[in-house]
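Why run this: before we spend reagent on co-expression, it is cheaper to look at a predicted model of the complex and decide which construct boundaries make sense. The entries below are exactly what would go into the expression plan.
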Amino acid sequence: MELSPDTIVYWQWGLVKINATLLFTWISGAILVLGSWLVTRRLRVRAEVGKGQAFLEMVVTLIRDQIRDATREEADAYLPLVGTLFLFIVFSTFLAVIPGVRNPAGSLSTTGALALCVFVAVPAYGIASKGLGGYLKHYVSPTPFMLPFHVIGEVSRTVALAIRLFGNIMSGRLIVAILLSIVPFVFPAIMEAFGLLIGFIQAYVFAILALVYIASGTRTVRDEREERTAEEADEDRSPDSSS
Amino acid sequence: MESTELVAVVSIFIAGLAIAIGSIGPALGEGRALARAMDAIAQQPDASNTVTRTLFVGMAMIESTAIYCLVVALILIFANPFWSHFLQAGG
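The model came back. Tokens follow.
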């Protein structure tokens, strides 16, 4: 029994291999890109909006609202990265329902690559919004003694991000494989549907955690203090509005 | 071949132990988190969206400790690195 789709090799030439992980990453990426290209090729307004455009607009609006709720900022800066991460994981999970198709997120290489994207994006967004000095200052924020803990925290949360997604997707697949040898009737299908739910939730969690990490890197201490006072003002106001 | 048997026995035993002990903490933690989230939703149904979202993210982070144990257990059973090492050394 193979744990990851890395071991299924379709084509090999010397050191260059094309395994199931690579192939299905490309396929789901290509379908996502082609689908959105076909839809966004001719965008309409008003009553002429087509079905595909309406669907894509719904998805984008949903993700943008979620980002706005989670960060309480404008979503436009985070939408491309976080939305892509979410859509890729969800789409490859849904694609894996087709027999013979493996979920690329069931391999530690894919999830590691996605987590590395987040690892690189955190300083990139931080430097873009606060400048190099402003970003580096948060590493020594309370005292310089906290520097190693900040660094360890950044590395370990990246590893945790990768292993969480990999463990959830891989264990779902493995449970189905084990159940097939014990009760090969109906029950594995239910677990497969359960795996879809898990894949969706994990994609959501991955995207939200990436968003939280990136947003925490772009925020300054003054922003947080202002937000806290704004929240307190909201709380003072809320009893009147609710009653 | 004796070392292979020893590796097999210890691996299977430790895999069971890892998942058994490793699931206690996250189970307790998730139960507490869910109970508090239920309380919060009952008191403030307006905030249920925020509470549910935070609950999902928090649950996933709590659960990840159990997932680490599961990954270790599965590696010990299905992809044991020491096993292949001893098989190569033995024959």
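The domain at 2-90 of chain B is CATH 1.20.20.10 (F1FO ATP Synthase). The CA atoms of residues 33 and 58 of chain B lie 8 Å apart. Bring this page to Monday's planning discussion.
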